[in-house]
Amino acid sequence: MSAALTAAERASRVKLMIFDVDGVLTDGGLLFTAAGDAMKSFNSLDGHGVKLLGEAGIATAIITGRNSEIVAARAKEMKIAHLFQGVENKLAVFAELTASLDIGADACGYMGDDWPDLPVLLRCGFAAAPANAHPEVIARAHWVAEARGGHGAVREVCDAILRAQRRYDALLAAACGA
């Protein structure tokens, strides 16, 4: 019988990293103007971490239950090619996405914070959560960030994946001009 994989071993296998939005890429707060327009706040560190995954050849995606032009704009800015909004069944979208990219579930990571994320978190190879995720999500995650959603949790998981795949140092050296 083989021992269970560590979080770092799981992260080293990630070829596709998927993120929820509210509570992961944002702090989960829902802000509305007097006109009823939604507003969201994103963390620039998180965005750069997602871009670094892309530079390392790791595909990225968003699967979220809400529809938002703001999320579409942010996904484009972060160069996320696979955006799924207004999703009621995240597991079905996960299955379609992994099949279309020919990537097994064990080579996928997912960061979520609440019960609607559990079906994907339970099937992907690397399940991650922000520090303020629901306790049931944290209990089932392979890896939990020190930061809260919208406050650097995504950057932490991106860095963890890059370190596990031994790509972090080369990307850092390139950023330093080496």
TrEMBL record:
Substrate binds at D22. InterPro entries: CMP-NeuNAc_synthase, HAD-like_sf, HAD_sf, KdsC_fam. It catalyses: 3-deoxy-alpha-D-manno-2-octulosonate-8-phosphate + H2O = 3-deoxy-alpha-D-manno-oct-2-ulosonate + phosphate. Mg(2+) binds at D20, D113. It is an enzyme of class 3 (hydrolase). GO terms for molecular function: 3-deoxy-manno-octulosonate-8-phosphatase activity; metal ion binding; N-acylneuraminate cytidylyltransferase activity. Its cofactor is Mg(2+). Its EC number is 3.1.3.45. Keywords: Hydrolase, Magnesium, Metal-binding. Homotetramer. Belongs to the KdsC family. This is 3-deoxy-D-manno-octulosonate 8-phosphate phosphatase KdsC. It comes from Burkholderia ambifaria (strain ATCC BAA-244 / DSM 16087 / CCUG 44356 / LMG 19182 / AMMD) (Burkholderia cepacia (strain AMMD)).
